[in-house]
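REQUEST FORM: STRUCTURE PREDICTION
Request ID: SP-0412
Submitted by: Lab K.M.
Chain count: 1
Length (residues): 77
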Amino acid sequence: MTEGQNSVCVFKGSMIDVTYYVERLSELGITSIMKDDFQSGVHAGVPSGSPDLIELLVDMDNAEKAFECIEGLQDSE
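STATUS: Completed
RESULT:
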């Protein structure tokens, strides 16, 4: 999976939460990527975004299943 027009943000939050959801989605066979604008900016020398706001992206085809998974996990917390 690559970030692009066919990817959808299904969650925004802390690195801990995003990492947890990445692992749960992976168990369902859903490939995802984390987008961290803050760290990308730091590496480029131009920090932008928030260090606590990581985006979790999935392919558009898997977005509905990913939303349902994340919502179910949040409801069980």
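NOTES: DSSP finds three helices and three strands in the chain.
Reviewed by: T.R.
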